[in-house]
Amino acid sequence: MTMLSALVLLPLLAAAALPAIRNSGGQNALAITTVVLVLAGLLVLAPTVIQGQILIGSLPGLLGRFHFQADPFGLLFALVGTLVWLSAVVYATGYLGDDPHRRRFLSVCLVLLATNLGVVLAADLLTLFVFFELLGLVAVLVVVHSGSQEARSAGITYFWMTLAGGIALLAGVMAIQAQAGSLAWQPLPEAVGAGWRWSIFALLLVGFGVKAGMVPLHIWLPAAHPVAPAPASALLSGVIIKAGAYGLFRCLNMLMAPTPETQAWGETVDMGLLLTLLGITTLLIGVVLALGQHSAKRMLAWHSVSQMGFVLTGLGVGAFLAADGAMATAGALLHVVNHALFKSCLFLGAGAVALRAGTADMYRLGGLWRGMPVTFACMLVAAAGIAGVPLFNGFVSKCMIHHGLVEASQREGGQILVYAEWLYMAACAGTVASFIKFIGLIFLRKPQQPKRVREVQPALLVGMLMPVVPIIWLGWRPHELLGSVIAPALADWGVSAQPITYYLEHYFMSGQDLIASAGTLAGGVAVFVAGMKFGWFNLQLPQAVGVAWWYRKLGTGLVNLCLQLSCLAATARAAAPGTVRRLYRRLCRALRRDVDGLTRPGTHEPYEDRLFEALDQQRDRLLVAADRLAQKHKDQYPGDALINGTHLIAGWLGTELVQRAMAGDRRSQRLGRDEAFCQKLASRAVEVAQKQLDAGLDGSEMQEILAELEAALGTESDHPDHNWPERSWPAELAAVVLAPDRAHWPVSERLAQGALVRAARGRVRKVARDLSSGLLIAFVILLCLALALRLLKLPMP
Amino acid sequence: MTSVTLPSLLPLWILVVPLAGATLLAAASRHRQLLGPITLGTGGLCLGLVVVLIMAVRQGFQFELALMELAPPLRIVLRADALGTLFALLIATLFPMATAYALRYMGDDPRLGRFLALVLVSQGLMLGVAFAASLMTLLAFYELFSLIGYVLIVHDRSQRARAAGLKYIVYIVVGGVFILTGVILVYFLAGDLRFVPGGLFAADASQRHLLTAWACFMIGFGVKSALMPLHGWVADAHPAAPAPFSALLSGIMVAAGSFGILRVVFEVFGTSVLTELGVMPWLALLAGISAICAGALAVGEDELKRRLAYSTISQMAYVMLAVATLGELALVGALMHLSHHAFIKAGLFFCAGLVAAGTGYTRVSQLDGLGHRMPRTGVLMTLLALAMVGVPPLSGFLSKWLLGAALLADGSIVSLSVLLVGSLLAAAYLWPLILRIWLPLPGPPPADADAGEPPSLMLAMTATSAVITTLLGLAATLPGLPLELARLAAATLLGGSG
């Protein structure tokens, strides 16, 4: 077991152990310790990996083993992710309070950590797929955590999008396996044609794009992120959606990259262009819809869509520029890190505000900076980061992507990207406006809520403060990360690192970039002022414009189609023409007789079976009662004489009762079930048996009892020629052979000679009929067979 | 790997143990406290013998035993090869689970002894099917267990069960006649009925006759394996039968039809003859239609067990889809899917039984909020449903992965799309279960708000199937598990044809 596998396994083991801990302090300690240990482990590995060594590890599973590897990119994603995890888990320990499901939540958080590590450290596509799918599906649990109706519907959307994306991804991975013959991270062989490359790219784009919130696959994101508890939103927006970006990055820069021998980028350039356009659409739609939100959390969720648009644009431009794309690609990777930091911080802050103020609606809040100064400071830094204010981290990555975009628009085939650049700047301005609105409405303006709001507990503050330091640090000194980690690693993959060093030397904090930034800031202020003045932020688009509406239509349409198919099948059965139906019914009746007759004779009247069972039970009941009574007087008589005698007499009485019931005497049927009546008969039987033993009575006593029974029943019944219920003779035979204790039940002569014989004769007749029809069927089948053989002109034996 | 064939009584012992157990049960059926020990002891013994067999088969041995001669060409011969051993492993594992489940599920049924005895008889006969070394042997055991199946389906004696049983027996008898016809044709054409990897037929056999024989076998075994136009009995029989038998019906009995097709495809006709006949695309077409249509019908079905029955039709169609490619990888995938589906589906039917026993509910629309009253059942059902959809790292994903990769390697993109659409449909018919169990719509609390968890033995058996499902996904490569046997079987079956 290597360090890497231990890092993936540790959170899983902790998650399994956590539910066993009852007190909340222990749970918190375990969760935080685990994340700290993972973080420490990754930090220990970091120096080795940065020096260019690739670490490997594996865990048993599926067809052999899950393979892990840590290269600089994987480790970078893992480190940033785990840092966000730490802040979210620390925050959660305070935020959850005495939530009834806190154990589940913390446990799920740890599982998500393990699966996220599995995704970014996966050494092959199958491992990646397994952990990616697990990550997506386990996250359903945090989305629906609150159990509210909103969470329910968000969970449904989330599940379906994740599943559909998973299936596309699976198809893509299968295609890679079939075409390349290997699932390792390496460029596809030259032999794979353009058609396959595009198919694989399209499938992976859908699979990863769903997770990355790429338009038009983003619909789950703005629904799911706001309904999750704040720490979970931070994880979802901060880290989990990055798994999609990570996958696309690997796909474009590794799978689709040229093999070292050829250096031909081929289709990858066009794929990059496609991804750039999708990215621009995503960031624009995200910003526009974010501006229209009232709830702070929903606004942040839409900004996640938009910020992922920045990342996708960067990745796309990087691929479009092929070997010269390092600046845009590095910008995208840096933006992933940046977004993880500021978005998790923002979600945690919004959660803190909602916790204290009781609402996340920005238009009903105000002046919180007094009550929550620390939260306010954190939010200010994070907002500056996301808005791209110079000296904060977002500025660096947005500038890098922008430079890449400008360069791409001057390339051949990239003319369309000139417009993309304008839209990019507009989106930056929109982001600024949105966060002016966020900070202004919640913290700075006059208080709107009646009561004063207090600052949150220390655990929440620690959680929020954790990302703040790197936000500022990366804004001041991106050199270490860009120059020492990302650039050399990209160079290893055959992408020249020169543009990155060029950026750091010439563009970083240059006048040109600062002016562009000032322009977007001014534009943002203008949008904010105009929007507040003219009420643009309250405009509502019709539902049919949103792609979610169409997905819902499609989904319900497909389910309805399935229902229609079911109905069709049912009606087809019912609506067969009358003659066919009649024939079918007659055939069924005939067959039922035969089939039932052959396999289980006499069962076509289950009512009579039940009657027989009921009657047997009556007789048993009487016998048991009599036995019990006789046991009491047993000591007065030698041996089992009294028991035997009672048994005999009670059996006789019981049989009589049963016979009468069978003869259609409903009264005896009812009385037989009556406990008191049974007791009375039983005591009479014991009495008679005693008398018999004492005085040696003759048969006349029996007649006396029978007369009494007659009187009790109160009817004159002389066993009319009744319709004797047929019981299967094999069963009866078996009953006689297998149940010797019943064999000596007395049977009256009348019954033995009359009804039983008649019944037996009827039964034999029926079996004969069944047998003959069975034989007939067999004969017909043989005839058909012979005919078939004759028609086929086979040599007859 | 070349295998060594040894004469041995082992297959016969494996087959006789359940039959002997059934006899014991019949004798002791009045002593209820004996039922459990006898059933479980028999199951355990049989499983133990199968494990011994697997150890031998892994070493490259085959066991053969000529049992008797009905008439000169018609010999009943048992042979334990890799394919048969794989199927025997499924039978020997699932039957004891189902009988143990039945001990509690039907605890107050006066005819429990009879039920268990018949289940054991059918276990013995199924093992006979698994170990059949010739068409004649296969036919004999196959027909016998099909008939026993009828008695078990109508066990409830309700009107519904009897109607379903009738439908079942009509389908099966008609199918049986077709198989018989096929067997006779094969005998006339090839002069032999043994199973030989690579096929029996000479190269100059008449195409028309071969085609007729093929059609007969497809109709005959297709009935049992629920290929689409012949699936009528499946959706009726499953809900009518007692839950433990539904589990066996789906997991083993339907699989037996596919097993028969495998034998016929690879050991009677052989791949070269079938490729020449050109029938495989038609089989793939039927299987594709089955997979999609049955999935769609399952989405529209409200009764839980019926929904699961349609799901069985859809899932077993994947097996046929893979067999139709005649590739070795695809065959491994098909066998894996057969085994994994058996455990998952049996587990789901167990869950349906748990729900019915705990609350009396049989419809999906009644499951709202069940997870909060029966949390363990809910968790197991969720896990098994996810496995059925094919969520990694559960076993359902593994077989889907193997199937898909094999189909794509063969260039059958259409088949792969069917597979993926099928799993989307699987999600569509199983997700509502999960959703309703855990996230009910707001409404008045249900009438059975105090219903608790069902007896622990039933729960334990369901949990066992869930554990097996997870294990088969996480550690499929352990020696002696289905994957190894499936690879061995595929190598044996396709080795003969070169």
From TrEMBL, chain A:
<feature type="transmembrane region" description="Helical">
    <location>
        <begin position="371"/>
        <end position="392"/>
    </location>
</feature>
<feature type="transmembrane region" description="Helical">
    <location>
        <begin position="269"/>
        <end position="291"/>
    </location>
</feature>
<dbReference type="GO" id="GO:0005886">
    <property type="term" value="C:plasma membrane"/>
</dbReference>
<feature type="transmembrane region" description="Helical">
    <location>
        <begin position="514"/>
        <end position="537"/>
    </location>
</feature>
<feature type="transmembrane region" description="Helical">
    <location>
        <begin position="311"/>
        <end position="334"/>
    </location>
</feature>
<feature type="transmembrane region" description="Helical">
    <location>
        <begin position="422"/>
        <end position="444"/>
    </location>
</feature>
<feature type="transmembrane region" description="Helical">
    <location>
        <begin position="228"/>
        <end position="249"/>
    </location>
</feature>
<feature type="transmembrane region" description="Helical">
    <location>
        <begin position="456"/>
        <end position="476"/>
    </location>
</feature>
<protein>
    <submittedName>
        <fullName>NADH dehydrogenase</fullName>
    </submittedName>
</protein>
<dbReference type="GO" id="GO:0016491">
    <property type="term" value="F:oxidoreductase activity"/>
</dbReference>
<dbReference type="GO" id="GO:0042773">
    <property type="term" value="P:ATP synthesis coupled electron transport"/>
</dbReference>
<dbReference type="Pfam" id="PF00361">
    <property type="entry name" value="Proton_antipo_M"/>
</dbReference>
<feature type="domain" description="NADH:quinone oxidoreductase/Mrp antiporter transmembrane">
    <location>
        <begin position="122"/>
        <end position="410"/>
    </location>
</feature>
<keyword id="KW-0812">Transmembrane</keyword>
<dbReference type="Pfam" id="PF00662">
    <property type="entry name" value="Proton_antipo_N"/>
</dbReference>
<keyword id="KW-1133">Transmembrane helix</keyword>
<feature type="domain" description="NADH-Ubiquinone oxidoreductase (complex I) chain 5 N-terminal">
    <location>
        <begin position="66"/>
        <end position="105"/>
    </location>
</feature>
<dbReference type="GO" id="GO:0008137">
    <property type="term" value="F:NADH dehydrogenase (ubiquinone) activity"/>
</dbReference>
<feature type="transmembrane region" description="Helical">
    <location>
        <begin position="73"/>
        <end position="97"/>
    </location>
</feature>
<feature type="transmembrane region" description="Helical">
    <location>
        <begin position="771"/>
        <end position="792"/>
    </location>
</feature>
<keyword id="KW-0472">Membrane</keyword>
<dbReference type="InterPro" id="IPR052175">
    <property type="entry name" value="ComplexI-like_HydComp"/>
</dbReference>
From TrEMBL, chain B:
<feature type="domain" description="NADH:quinone oxidoreductase/Mrp antiporter transmembrane">
    <location>
        <begin position="132"/>
        <end position="425"/>
    </location>
</feature>
<dbReference type="Pfam" id="PF00361">
    <property type="entry name" value="Proton_antipo_M"/>
</dbReference>
<feature type="transmembrane region" description="Helical">
    <location>
        <begin position="456"/>
        <end position="478"/>
    </location>
</feature>
<feature type="transmembrane region" description="Helical">
    <location>
        <begin position="245"/>
        <end position="266"/>
    </location>
</feature>
<feature type="transmembrane region" description="Helical">
    <location>
        <begin position="278"/>
        <end position="298"/>
    </location>
</feature>
<feature type="transmembrane region" description="Helical">
    <location>
        <begin position="6"/>
        <end position="27"/>
    </location>
</feature>
<feature type="transmembrane region" description="Helical">
    <location>
        <begin position="168"/>
        <end position="190"/>
    </location>
</feature>
<feature type="transmembrane region" description="Helical">
    <location>
        <begin position="34"/>
        <end position="56"/>
    </location>
</feature>
<keyword id="KW-0472">Membrane</keyword>
<keyword id="KW-1003">Cell membrane</keyword>
<feature type="transmembrane region" description="Helical">
    <location>
        <begin position="413"/>
        <end position="435"/>
    </location>
</feature>
<feature type="transmembrane region" description="Helical">
    <location>
        <begin position="210"/>
        <end position="233"/>
    </location>
</feature>
<keyword id="KW-1133">Transmembrane helix</keyword>
<dbReference type="GO" id="GO:0005886">
    <property type="term" value="C:plasma membrane"/>
</dbReference>
<feature type="transmembrane region" description="Helical">
    <location>
        <begin position="115"/>
        <end position="133"/>
    </location>
</feature>
<protein>
    <submittedName>
        <fullName>Oxidoreductase</fullName>
    </submittedName>
</protein>
<dbReference type="InterPro" id="IPR003918">
    <property type="entry name" value="NADH_UbQ_OxRdtase"/>
</dbReference>
<feature type="transmembrane region" description="Helical">
    <location>
        <begin position="76"/>
        <end position="103"/>
    </location>
</feature>
<feature type="transmembrane region" description="Helical">
    <location>
        <begin position="374"/>
        <end position="393"/>
    </location>
</feature>
<keyword id="KW-0812">Transmembrane</keyword>
<dbReference type="GO" id="GO:0042773">
    <property type="term" value="P:ATP synthesis coupled electron transport"/>
</dbReference>
<dbReference type="GO" id="GO:0008137">
    <property type="term" value="F:NADH dehydrogenase (ubiquinone) activity"/>
</dbReference>
